[in-house]
Amino acid sequence: MAGFQIKIPGFVGTVLTRLRERGHSAYIVGGSLRDLLLGGVPHDWDVTTSARPEQTLAAFEDFTTIPTGLKHGTVTVLVDRIPIEITTYRVDGTYTDSRRPDSVTFTDRISEDLARRDFTVNAMAYSPEGGLVDLYGGKEDLQAGILRAVGEPQRRFTEDALRILRGFRFSAQLDFTVEPATLAAMSDTREGLRKISAERILAELSRLLTAPAAPRAWGALCGAKVLPLILPRTAEIQTRPTTQTAAGLDNLPRDLAPRMAWLFFGMPQEDIRADLGALKPSTKLKEDVLRLTERTAPPTDATPPAVRRMIRHYGDLTDAVLSLWACARYDVAALQETADQVRAEGFCQSIADLAVSGNDLIAVGIRGKALGETLKALLEHVTDRPEDNRRDILLSLARPQ
After folding, report:
1. What does the pLDDT look like over 19-61, one tens digit per residue?
2. Which CATH superfamily does the domain covering 145-252 fall into?
3. Among candidates 1, 269, 32, which has minimal Cα distance to 130?
4. Domain at 1-144, CATH from 3.30.460.10, 3.30.559.10, 3.30.2350.10, 3.20.20.70
5. What distance, in Å, lies between the first and last C-alpha atoms of the chain?
6. Each residue of 229-246: pLDDT tens digit?
7. Nearest CA to 119 among 49, 86, 74, 168?
């Protein structure tokens, strides 16, 4: 598309110019170009070039370079401390693991490189000299808000099953509708997800759940019968209609722990542990989700002491669990009001917040097992009476009678 111009940052222009000056063609490609066309700022920068990896390294010998994946033609170059991933035009060989090609063949033709890509909106290329290369209608799909596979959809997802989840994730991030033939192929090839690592599945699921259009994408994912491949216990138990789960996501903050907890909300803890553990989450994410799902109905006591204890238990997750209870259609207005009130007033949320320390209690003769028990008892006391969190009062309460 000659004459088409996009404003690109200077550090990207440096890469394109350097490659062109050494006799190679080079284009911005993939998600970075897609985001530029949407008027956004790319998080990552990808350039594709006719230069072979060793030629790319030679072209940037005065820059910091990282041989990210020479076998697949990729070199990362740091320009102004910003990483730019440069990959040689290539044709992928056969895929036997439903994830990566067994081999790649370098090519001099940008058209062959674009043909191997996943979705039309990611299969465009741009350079100031060559303009926009759009062989599959990506710009039109971008303007229409459509996610469409490049070429034969069935082949794209058979090659790399992770593209199925990437498709739903892109739909969530971009608020795009998955084109019917593409969606059907995602469903038809879903068994390939069994070969994808838990870490990859969790990464895509996490980005989907926290994206702006997560409710719509979640509905599409479930409609395509993908859920049993990534969360089998959740799919089997089905504690609520998909529409209710999607609506809940829309009413939760865009934080991973509460949104993931909502998927499991109402399930037995052993089933939650099974599905969650299979994804291999971080210890913190696992602990947060389990805590948020341990109680599926709110406490009925909304008095200040009871709410202080609730906040002590949930800590930074307090507002998240209140939101989850609200999504489950409980009235949490009184709990939220009291929580806001007691937090504004301030209160002792842990032993560390007490006006006395363990050393203070040792000084008055409290030692051993009694030391921990006394600190816990004092915390309970000031939870009921926050005004008593004073050193003199607590020491008086703690001293052996």
Report:
1. 999 999 999 999 999 999 999 889 899 999 999 999 999 999 9
2. cca-adding enzyme, domain 2 (1.10.3090.10)
3. 1
4. 3.30.460.10
5. 89
6. 999 999 999 888 999 999
7. 168
